[in-house]
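Quick look at the format.
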Amino acid sequence: MHDVVRRRVLVTGIGVESCAGGTPDALWDALSAGRPAISALELEQPLPCQVGGVVEGFDPREHMSVQQVRRTSRFQQLLFAAAMKARADAGLRTAPGALFVGTGGGGLDEAARLVTTLRHSGWSQMNRLGLLRLLPNQAAGLVAQELDITGPVLTLSTACASSTDAIGAGLRAVRDGTADVVLVGGVESWLDLPCLASFCLLDALSQRPAAEAARASRPFDRDRDGMVPAEGAAVLVLESERSALRRGATVHGEVLGAATTCDAHHPVAPRADGTVAARTIELACADAGLDPAAVDLVSAHGTSTPLNDRAETAAIKRAFGSHARHMAITAPKSVIGHACGACGILESVGVLLAMREKYVPPTANLDNPDPDCDLDYTPLVGRSAPINVAVKQNFGFGGQNSAVVFGTA
């Protein structure tokens, strides 16, 4: 029987694989210092995009068997590693009740390899497990098999809002009593030639040269010229307060509310006035039972693209009214790039750590603020501040909007 009183949902575990490092502390070191973890990409063919956020030194054999490594692709391995780290951090000894994973493209890089082999060597030479290495749901399936998760195991694909939506799904599962403990995560591995070339054709990626890698991602700066692609994964353990207290779990924060909407406007461009994105933020705050004026920090989507940054500024102004000019805003993609379907969960880790450290991370490379982006985006230098309530918002192709509200536990 479900609890009559709405249950509190706590974050009790964190696992990370990012271009800034493989631990929450490494990620926080980069974010808090405003130190970009972006480097030159090694590509088989030259592209206008030359820089990205690579998860360096990742060895899946540290987390899975040799047989599992052989059967899986990079996006599956990244998620698996993050999930095992989150489980260990939470000290879980029983199977979670559910798993929700967000990803934009899944194994698109594997699909490209299969097509290349088919054209050059014939179908019989294709990887026999190729299909299983590319299907988006297989990363979640791999984790479910390892941890014996027999409840809901769902993969959400809402572009750059995917893993933020996964957090929302996990929140509702725990709050509504579907499960006491769930894993929520996101993963993206899209630094392959076909994916990057496709984004280049949309003029979506920064064209700064490799020598300027650290300065390429410039959210809300007038000299921004596009997204900086990045790969990575993160997983959070969400747990009911009752379960966390019973286990004596360490609590990293609380998920207070979430919401998702759709612009219903354009395949890649946001509504310029930010009306629907603003409503997403308002709905998330309402779901948390909070007035938007209670928010201390907004972790912006901040893609470093001309249209999105202006539309997001408009959305923040609409959602928060006069409070928009009195709260802190930070843009983590200036440091860790754009991990597409994984960006929301990676940036949510940053939010949880900012709340723990009572520190607003800076927006790197914000040297010359765009006059149309005239809010306090914490340019270049972070600052100490009490952060009791924070909003993480992400927006994706197809008009996908998602927001999550976090609080201190």
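Next, a different chain entirely:
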Amino acid sequence: MFTGIIETTGLVKEISADRNNLSFSIESELSAELKVDQSLAHNGVCLTVEAIDGNTYRVTAIHETLQKTNLGELKPGSVVNLERSLQFGGRIDGHIVQGHVDVKGKVESLSDEGGSLRISISHPAAGGYLTVEKGSVCVNGVSLTVVNSRAGGFEIAVIPYTLGHTNLGNLKEGDSVNIEFDVLGKYAANYMSLYADMVKQS
């Protein structure tokens, strides 16, 4: 479990394929503090540390993960957002994030608002994916506040600090991003859908 507050970024050094899986060697200042078997979020995707060698470590994404996230689009030189798992007893500065990406979204537009960058993101309208105004959403592992919610999309306003300390500052129109919707909202939406079905059948 995570909070969506990015600790640092990592640099993809090497990528190797093993059947339908991809293994990533990533260089990061966190490497010396990691342990094998530790969970670490990469652009919001929870992956297990498999090996550590100096300032680099290795993780593997399986076919299912590659299909549902933007990790399959990474190349040597790509920058990824990193966050270690939540420690109970600490402050939750973002929101509860599972590290289980729901869907890939697409950057539709970016506009400089003189102190923040407004990013408009679209996503599949089906599947019960929803956001609410002033609610939380996780984009590439970053906990953010929704400033404009609509069917099949939303907007976020990102402050300069976040742009400079995550890979959100590198986004361009047309880029894909990993989206994890608020887990409480997903439970509520699913409950309402089940309730509506029960009412129809009664």
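The helical segments are 63-68, 160-165, 183-201.

See the schema section for token definitions.
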